[in-house]
Every structure is written in structure tokens, then in C-alpha cells.
Amino acid sequence: MLDKTLPYAEIWMTRPLQLPVPMTPLAEGFEFRTYQKGDESAWSEIETSVGEFQTTDEALEYFQKNFAPYPEELERRMFFVETKNGEKVATCTAWRKKSRERVYPVFHWLAVKPVYQGKGLAKALTAKVLQEFSTLHTDGPIYLHTQTWSHQAIALYKKMGFSFIAENLDGTPNPDYEKVMQVLSKLDK
Description:
By secondary structure, this protein is an alpha+beta fold. It contains 6 helices and 7 strands; from the N terminus they run ββαααβββαβαβα.
């Protein structure tokens, strides 16, 4: 869940592509699934439930613009955690972003419905997606874009080998970097 009581600031993190991924089993009663046509509604519901979008319509619009044009990529790169009864309750994507004629691996849009948080689903899903990067990319590091409002997820990302960088994906300075460090340092106390 996003913590919007904090000042907002953007941050980039990286993780070496070949860094070993800690074995993290998925809790009993849950399974990993990859995207299939029609899952955009589930993605929208999950992302809206954690506050990334105001409405599922807004989330669907984002999905249609940024993901839908790449159906084959979605089937390989977008993951869900599903309950035994087929409810999709978490999602994350091993995406890629093109900048300056280079394609970068990007860990993208990790979210777990609030009622299912605290069961280790985010950690297991993070490990699953990180493992997939080694089959999808030969060049790294893996990049991750996040914000101060996601400080709980940032703690997980750090445990999984991500570290902060002072630049944006394209190498330009991130003007929010110092602000992020100040906000997060206050939370560590």
C-alpha cells in the first residue's frame, strides 16, 4: 500500500542481472501464473487496490497504452499470484524500456492486494520475476523505478539486492535523489 503521508519523490534502483536470487517459496494455496488475454482487468484491480490509480478505468487506460500493444511480451513477462479458486491477488512484470537505442530490463509494477499482504507473496513474486530476467535478457543491470510512497516495498527491494542510484535510467541526474535519501533516512530511525 502506498504511504501518501510522506513527501513524494522518484527514485531509481538497480540490481546486477547475474546476482543470485534467494530461494523464496510461494505460500501454500497460491500459484504463479503468467499473463493471458483478459488479465488486464485483474491487473487493473490489483494496482488500483494499492493506490497506484484512482480507478480501475484509469488503470485499464494505462494498461491499454503501455502494455496491450505487446501481447507476446506480456505472456512472457507479466506474472500474477493466484489463489486456488483462481483469484489473481498480486502482480509484477519483468518489463523492458528502450532509451537511447538501448533496451533496459525493468522490474515493474509490483503490487499485492491489501487483504493478501503480509503472507510473503511480494517477496516470492519478486524472486520469481528476478529469476525470469536471466532468461529474458543477457545485459544488465535490472532497473527499478519507485517512489518514497513505496518505502515498505523499497525495504524488500534492498533485501533482494537492489541499491539506489543517483541517476535516472538514461544516466541523467535524478533531481529527487537527495530528497529521497532524506525522506527514507528519517524512516530508518
